[in-house]
Design brief:
The structure holds two protein chains of two kinds.
Chain A lengths: L2 H13 L2 H8 L3 H15 L4 E4 L2 E4 L1 H29 L5 E6 L8 H10 L5 E6 L1 H10 L4 E4 L9 E16 L9 E2 L9 E4 L5 H10 L8 E3 L2 H9 L4 E5 L7 E6 L5 E9 L6 H12 L3 H4 L9
Parallel strand pairs in A: 3-4, 3-5, 7-11, 8-9, 8-10
Antiparallel strand pairs in A: 1-2, 5-12, 6-10, 6-11, 6-12
Helix pairs in contact in A: 1-2, 1-3, 1-4, 2-3, 4-9
Chain B lengths: L6 H13 L5 H15 L1 H16 L17 E3 L5 E3 H5 L4 E5 L6 H17 L5 E6 L3 H11 L5 E3 L4 H5 L3 E3 L2 H9 L4 H5 L5 E3 L2 E5 L5 E6 L9 H10 L2
Parallel strand pairs in B: 3-4, 4-5
Antiparallel strand pairs in B: 1-2, 3-8, 6-7, 8-9
Helix pairs in contact in B: 1-2, 1-5, 2-3, 2-5, 5-6
Classes of the chains: A alpha/beta, B alpha/beta.
Chain lengths: 302, 236
């Protein structure tokens, strides 16, 4: 496949009109048609069904469209990388990391990124997931790392990185500290602390409330750090994702909880990625996250 | 009813035998292709159909040619280090070898042959680097199996390959045949698009210009090791 063939096909997919697609791509319509026919021959099936001035995507066309768009964006990024390397022109990169996600697993990658791109200015933002979505929309942030984004904008591309189960944390002096696994009933007399900044706070609270171990009067903290400080001081116990780093605390499996969150990298679809953004996204997606917690389907491989 | 063993499992013995043959790379690859055809004529036929479809549409032919510059890249290796084409060229001419993935027996035989070639030529300040669409731990697996001394780089979504015109779609029929046989690149690629690179090797001089090129949509064929070594030796 060649990039121009895919570009033409993506334009037809959006306009559903060969004349408009040709105009948008700035080519003559016969060239566009020829390129798409060549693409169809290579893919081994028809992508378009032509009816007068309108074109419809075939079933194969509909299936291939998102895949080819993703590959096209990766290829366009590769071109940007090649061009920036030759000019040495490295634009600054603004990354948003949700406050509910630990930064430490990403720090080695940010270090490697700044080593590989001398002259790169890195701007790191922390905030709520809503703020991350707003800054992606506004273009003030190019890439965000967060848990599931509620009511996410349809133009966001989400690339799942890893899945973290939720566990109970207690202080080292807590009466439950010696346990590896406990059931809900052993939490009946405990005070629970809730991190309101976590994307999954509502889901988690609902699950705990349904099991009678959380009421409306639970203590609240707005950041993971504050939450852990309170747990350490025995103000209460909390339920947090497995990837969160902690010291002076004990992590205990909650037998019946069975709740996990997926941490993903988010970028805006169709927006041109800078060399730093493209490289960071490749690093994040190629990385071995199994030490955080491997998704089930990957555990048996390699 | 007992489930029949996946083709991939049955073929592991064949793979080990072919990898170990004291013969040129082309003969080892051919021995595997012949063995596969004997065991599963239908699989051989599906491969032939895919290859002739790709050959008829000149897949990969738009890739950069001898005398043209090799476009630069920044790709993470199996340890997470980001590698620049210029980093590799600083040490001498380099052969960049596109492979399909850690699950592909032909690529595993090829990487094994490339690993022995690297051992032979590294002292002459000539090197090899492999590129796969597989994520890091699978790239690491491929490298470890062959004890390859060179980096195995990850090209997520085949982005770099696509920018060179080297990405292909496996096709609906081949996809079904592969899944039935226990080969599923979507696990190692981390994406379900069934795109693969056309296997290709580019020998690049320290000036970044391509000195030799091998591109063939028939993934059972790879650049002959002798040709690659000769091109690396004559490159400056």
């Amino acid at each position: 496949m060649e990039m121009h063939q895919i570009r033409y096909f993506l334009a037809v997919g959006e306009t559903l009109n060969l004349t408009k697609a040709a105009e948008r791509c700035n080519v003559a319509q016969p060239s566009l048609t020829r390129a798409i026919k060549a693409l169809e021959a290579e893919l081994g099936g028809e992508l378009l069904r032509r009816e007068r001035s309108l074109s419809h995507l075939t079933e194969l066309g509909q299936r291939m469209l998102p895949m080819l768009r993703q590959c096209y964006e990766a290829a366009a990024s590769a071109k940007t990388v090649a061009a920036s390397i030759s000019t040495g022109d490295i634009a600054p990169l603004t990354v948003a990391v949700s406050r509910a996600v630990a930064l430490s697993p990403f720090a080695p990658m940010l270090r490697e990124l700044s080593r590989a791109l001398p002259g790169l200015q890195l701007k790191l933002r922390r905030g709520s997931s809503d703020e991350a979505v707003e800054s992606l929309k506004a273009g003030s942030v190019e890439i965000a790392i967060a848990g599931p984004l509620a009511g996410a904008w349809s133009r966001l591309d989400a690339f799942p990185l890893f899945e973290e189960p939720f566990d109970l944390v207690v202080s080292e002096t807590h009466r439950l500290a010696a346990h590896d696994t406990i059931g809900f009933k052993e939490l009946a007399s405990e005070t629970l602390l809730v991190n309101t900044g976590c994307e999954m706070a509502e889901q988690l609270s609902a699950r705990l409330a349904a099991n009678g171990i959380l009421d409306d009067a639970a203590h609240q903290a707005a950041t993971q750090e504050d939450l852990l400080t309170l747990v350490k001081a025995n103000v209460g116990v909390a339920v947090i994702p497995a990837g969160v780093e902690m010291s002076g605390l004990r992590r205990i499996k909650l037998r019946e909880l069975n709740l996990a969150r997926v941490v993903s990298a988010y970028v805006v679809a169709g927006r041109r990625r800078s060399v730093a953004c493209a490289t960071l996204l490749n690093m994040l997606r190629s990385a071995d996250w199994s030490y955080v917690a491997a998704p089930e389907h990957e555990r048996s491989v390699g | 009813m007992t489930e029949e063993p996946k083709l991939g499992v049955i073929l592991e013995d064949l793979f080990i035998r072919c990898r170990g043959l004291d013969a040129p790379l082309a003969d080892r690859l051919q021995a595997f292709a012949d063995g596969l055809r004997r065991l599963r004529p239908d699989f051989g036929a599906a491969v032939d159909a895919m290859v002739s479809r790709l050959a008829a549409s000149n897949a990969g032919s738009a890739a950069p040619k001898v005398g043209e510059p090799m476009p630069g890249f920044l790709l993470p290796d199996e340890t997470g280090r980001v590698i620049h084409l210029d980093d590799l060229l600083r040490d001498g001419p380099v052969a960049i070898a596109f492979n399909r993935g850690h699950w592909c027996p032909y690529c595993r035989i090829n990487i094994d042959a490339l690993a022995r070639a690297e051992e032979e030529i590294a002292a002459e300040r000539r090197h090899i680097a492999a590129v796969v669409p597989d994520r890091r731990r699978f790239a690491m697996w491929l490298k470890s199996e062959a004890k390859a001394p060179f980096p195995v780089l990850t090209d997520i979504d085949n982005g770099y390959a696509m920018s060179l015109g080297l990405a292909i779609f496996v096709g609906e029929e081949m996809k079904r045949t592969m899944v039935r046989s226990g080969w599923d690149p979507s696990v190692s690629q981390g994406t379900d698009d069934w795109l693969l690179p056309v296997p290709a090797t580019f020998v690049v001089g320290t000036d970044g210009v391509i000195q030799a090129r091998f591109v063939d949509p028939d993934y059972r064929l790879r650049m002959a090791i002798e040709d690659m070594l000769a091109a690396l030796r004559s490159a400056k």
